[in-house]
Fold DUF4367 domain-containing protein.
Amino acid sequence: MNKRIFVSIVFLLSLLLLTACNVSEKDALGNAELALEQTLEMEPMEGTAEGEDFTYYIPSGFTVDEDIEGSNNVVLNDKEQLYILFVNPFEQDDSKVVFESTLLSYNNVLINESFMKDNKFVYLIIDKEQQKDGEYEVTFGIGGVKITTVTDTNNMEDSVRKMVEIVSSVNLEGEE
């Protein structure tokens, strides 16, 4: 009898700990928007890597998985989480073209935030993934530069911070 009570208590405590570690969807979305605002207020990071016609910052722990030769896409990896950086050098910082075309590809948008900041068109789109329960496709961009990843509620805030750091750091050749 004592063994059953002990096992029940351990099970309940484990369940409580697992539940406490999960961030609700509502909280994750709110934290992502806050991370966007806070990170945009920071000075852009200095470029630490080079694409075909641009430089960009890679956060600590990230690796370049694949630099597709002859294109403006870079695949970054952070502990098995992939980020795809896309740079359209023909679109200016105030362009809405990449945003509008990206938005068309989503079906279950939870956040569609866009605004002008310092003559730059900034946007954050969070779409609930249909393929995998509990996963979200997150896209952050400024004009013709965007980055996309798939994440969960526990990692969404950190993902958005890193995405803003990366995109804000992109510097096209010929720009100051």
User: Anything to note?
Assistant: The longest strand covers residues 109-117. DSSP finds four helices and ten strands in the chain. The chain has one domain: 23-172.
